[in-house]
Design a protein that fits this description.
The protein has 14 helices and 14 strands. It has 399 residues and is an alpha/beta fold. Helix 4 links the parallel strand 5 and strand 6. The chain binds adenosine-5'-triphosphate and magnesium ion (MG). The site of adenosine-5'-triphosphate has 20 residues, from helix 5, strand 10 and helix 12.
């Protein structure tokens, strides 16, 4: 006897009404895709849940992969047996013996198949007794057991599951369309990308790069961050914008205190062009109210003027400590804190305007024709596809 299935519960998705079918199919595809390296594995849908058929594979690496898939609420190892009381007893005992450091247990039987001759309550007692007589030093605790053995007697078979492993929750990536993530090398924007993905968004990334002021290593850092984000979704296209000329022009021609605001407006304009060409309907940034000069309400208002695309700002209300916590959990923190320069830190104006105004930004911009440099930047975009590696795993040690 051994665990031969993994039971997948998808919780919140059950509330999604008409879209539910599409969500479930996408989740099934996403799971299949992440497990494509394991031969012979099947992902099956049944009412309200999914099962992975292990076909002899070690469940541990598979569970670890599933822990990074949005849309999975929780998972459990399961054994499928015939609707036969003796088989169910045997499987329950196996599940109990497989538990680590178990001193107390509880059995919960759910009889969905009313043709099964023993009612749930009675079956609870039958199994409890069987487990107590076949083990030593273990007792029943119905309130706070170390291990709960769940038995579901369904039409086709009975499933025996024990410990519950938490999943990431959220919605399956790809069910909420695409967004263009403005990805710097900092701590915030990768976290923003992760949180957008959590709501089912597939992301592409755009990065503004200013060689030789920003180095190849700074660019590689951004590609590495994108690679880390693929753990939670699919391959990510990263659009690298050659920003040097436009940025120099801005800092040469514009009043120093407005240069940063206008640089951000240019970033938005270029991002919108990429959205348009890639059929992306929104942008996502790591902006967070009140952190720095570019992130005051006035600043956001002035920068936002140049686009009417929705901008998703998942971090807007978070404290820095909360952002750092997520960044550590998702594995991007160590890369983010590498000290390579960013285009925004190289050209820092001496005294950026913390309360810029739309009218002034428009007035200053009208003095210089940026068209050529802007077109040059757009035409020079290099797109790099970051493929999800099949051997990555975020939390190797949790199981
Ligand atoms: P982060 O930690 O993400 O770098 P930050 O706290 O440094 O953010 P800002 O420098 O004001 O804040 O940047 C705000 C947002 O603008 C970033 O979160 C990111 O989405 C975007 N951004 C900044 N610089 C770049 C860049 N070089 N390329 C792409 N997007 C950028
Ligand atoms: Mg930054």
């Amino acid at each position: 006897m051994q665990y031969d299935h993994i039971l997948i519960r998808y919780g919140e998705m059950a509330l999604k009404g008409k879209n539910i079918k599409q969500f479930i199919i996408r989740l099934q595809e996403n799971i299949q895709d992440k497990l494509r390296d394991f031969s012979n594995i099947k992902v099956k849908r049944t009412q309200g849940r999914m099962f992975i058929l292990l076909n002899g594979h070690d469940p541990e690496p598979i569970i670890n992969k599933c822990k990074n898939i949005f849309g999975i609420q929780s998972l459990s190892l399961a054994i499928k047996v015939k609707n036969d009381p003796e088989k169910i007893k045997e499987a329950s005992l196996y599940a109990l013996k497989k538990g680590k450091n178990v001193k107390t247990f509880k059995v919960s039987v759910k009889r969905i198949n009313k043709d099964f001759p023993i009612p749930s309550q009675e079956m609870n007692q039958v199994l409890g007794k069987h487990l107590l007589t076949n083990t030593e030093g273990i007792s029943v605790d119905v309130h706070e057991p170390d291990l709960e053995i769940k038995v579901e007697i369904r039409l086709e078979a009975a499933y025996i599951t024990s410990s519950v492993v938490q999943g990431l929750g959220g919605l399956p990536v790809g069910t909420s369309g695409k967004s263009l993530l403005l990805l710097s090398g900092g701590i915030d924007s990768p976290v923003a990308g992760y949180l957008a993905m959590k709501r089912g968004v597939h992301i592409e990334a755009i990065h503004f790069h200013s060689p030789p002021f920003t180095s190849e290593r700074a660019k590689q850092k951004v590609l590495d961050l994108a690679q880390q984000l693929t753990k939670y979704g699919k391959s990510i296209n990263v659009h690298i914008v050659p920003f040097t000329k436009l940025q120099q022009e801005i800092f040469r021609e514009m009043p120093n205190e407005y240069a940063m605001t206008i640089m951000r407006r240019m970033m938005m304009r270029i991002s919108e062009r990429v959205c348009h060409s890639q059929e992306i309907l929104s942008m996502t940034t790591g902006e967070n109210l009140g952190q720095v000069a570019s992130q005051t309400m006035e600043s956001m208002n002035t920068i936002n003027e140049v686009t009417n695309y929705p901008i998703i700002r998942p971090l807007i209300a978070m404290d820095k400590t909360e952002i750092i916590k997520i960044s550590r959990e998702i594995g991007t923190y160590e890369t983010s804190i590498l000290p390579y320069e960013d285009c925004c830190t190289i050209f820092v104006p001496k005294s950026p305007k913390t309360k810029p105004k739309r009218e002034k930004a428009n007035l200053f911009e009208a003095r210089t024709d940026f068209t050529d440099s802007l077109e040059e930047a757009v035409n020079g975009i290099e797109t790099i596809k970051i493929t999800a590696k099949t051997n990555q795993c975020a939390y190797e040690d949790l199981f």
